[in-house]
Write a structure and sequence with these properties.
With 459 residues, the protein is mostly beta strands. The chain is 9% helix and 32% strand. The longest helix has 16 residues, at 2-17.
Length: 459
């Protein structure tokens, strides 16, 4: 028995000498290869392994899930034809010699860069419009349309079937040297035109026609070097032309009535907070003969009715600031009635305010109040045609002298008209990632605040 216990004792010593550990060796720090008591634990048992570097996620080349041109479709038209409501067509930088027709509702057509994405019609008769839209709720943004035989961007309902297009938006678009109109909406309602630029057109940079009510907001745009800055035939009713700059055109702003379109007469527009200046520019192309009568006028209301002209800065227009006038139209004589010209600032115009006599001794409800002006015909027009009180004598029209428009051989072809402000226009923010917003709803009408609009500072 003693020999057995002795043998067990020897075996235990032998096991210790060979580095055997007790069950709690790790906790006590005992058990290195020498059998000594260690002051520190095994370094490999305490150190945490260095974490492996996470691979950087690959950037999504198409975060909007867009129909891309030219990556997915070689032409804009093919991408538009493939789109379904809610889609965005994203156009890469380049020049596209095509005319695009849109017949799908609620899509967005966007360029990746305003100056770098160019639809160019090359002045070809085969390419009438840069983009023509027949569908509701379509938005066009962040690109340039130039050199088309008719129009740059054109939203239109159906004239014959009385289909009124509902919902359109144009944002950060540049329209240059298209033969007729730059940005054109016809027989269409619920529209927003913003942050755009138009130059070099034989008719108008911006045109809104044949809508009543229009429910259109045209704001924060520039129009220069056109025959007309803005024209609106038979257009009115919740029509807001506000906070724009209309400069260096042949003629400025012209809401008007014509028999060539339905819904006559024009009525019910609001023109507020605009800077209308330096019109009467000879370095423009000539439109129709009828407009030559208004050459050099900042704003003319020919055959226009029930419009409010409010808190605009109207300065430096060669022949006149504002003129209210009749409009001869074949056998029809359209009169201007019930327009209010209020709280505007006039300076440096040929004549600040002109009321053309339309009926013997009758101002036809047109009135003038609280304007800052120096000259008018008739003189002291706010006393003669006040907005509150009886009207006076309209016969004092002597002394109006107008600068004549350029002679026929001095008119500039529209193809050669300058567009000095085009390169200064900003692109939209984050066109590659900004979520698309279709134009099926235009919320600006719910929050529009006319009282918040002030006279611009100019300069």
């Amino acid at each position: 028995m003693r020999r057995f216990l002795a043998l067990l004792f020897v075996l235990a010593l032998t096991a210790t000498a060979c580095g055997g550990e007790s069950d709690n060796a790790t906790e006590t720090g005992i058990g290195d290869s020498t059998g000594d008591v260690g002051d520190e634990a095994d370094p490999q048992s305490d150190e945490e392994p260095e974490p492996e570097e996470e691979p950087e996620p690959e950037e999504d080349p198409n975060p909007l899930d867009a129909l891309r041109v030219p990556e997915d479709y070689p032409t804009i038209q093919e991408a538009v034809d493939a789109a379904t409501p809610g889609d965005i067509v994203l156009i890469g930088a380049g020049v596209y010699n095509e005319s695009v027709a849109v017949e799908t509702d609620n899509i967005v057509i966007r360029g990746v860069d305003r100056q770098g994405v160019v639809l160019d019609g090359m002045h070809s008769e085969d390419l009438a419009n840069g983009i023509i839209v027949f569908s509701n709720g379509v938005a066009v943004e962040n690109l340039t349309v130039q050199n088309y035989f008719s129009n740059g961007v054109f939203f239109t309902g159906d004239y014959d079937s009385d289909f009124v297009l509902e919902g359109y938006r144009i944002s950060h678009v540049t329209a240059l040297n298209n033969r007729k109109y730059g940005i054109y909406a016809f027989n269409a309602s619920y529209g927003l035109i913003e942050n755009s630029y138009a130059a070099g057109h034989t008719d108008s940079g911006y045109y809104i026609g044949q809508c009543q009510p229009c429910r259109v907001l045209l704001t924060d745009n520039i129009s220069e070097y056109n025959t007309l800055a803005y024209s609106g035939t038979n257009a009115g009713g919740e029509l807001y032309i506000v906070n724009n700059e209309f400069r260096l055109n042949r003629i400025g702003v012209t809401p008007n009535t014509l028999s060539s379109e339905e819904l006559a007469p024009q009525r019910g527009g609001v023109f507020a907070g605009n800077w209308i200046h330096s019109n009467g520019n000879p370095d423009t192309s000539k439109g129709g003969d009828i407009w030559e009568l208004a050459y050099g006028v900042g704003m003319v209301l020919p055959g226009a009715n029930e419009n409010l002209v409010l808190r605009n800065l109207i300065e430096g227009n060669r022949n006149g600031g504002v003129a209210v006038s009749f409009l001869p139209d074949g056998d029809v004589f359209w009169q201007a009635t019930d327009n209010q010209i209020r709280e505007n600032v006039f300076t440096g115009n040929g004549i600040d305010i002109v009321m053309v006599q339309q009926a013997e001794g009758d101002g036809l409800g047109n009135c003038f109040a609280d304007n800052d002006y120096e000259t008018s015909r008739p003189a002291d027009i706010e006393t003669v045609l006040p907005c509150d009180g009886p009207q006076g004598d309209l016969s004092d029209m002597i002394g109006i002298e107008f600068f004549a428009p350029p002679a026929a051989d001095e008119n500039m072809p529209y193809e050669d008209v300058a567009s000095p402000g085009a390169d200064d226009q900003m692109s939209m923010v984050d066109p590659m990632t900004a979520p698309p917003v279709t134009a099926d709803v235009i919320p600006e009408f719910d929050t529009f605040d006319l009282d918040a609009i002030t006279v611009p500072s100019g300069g």
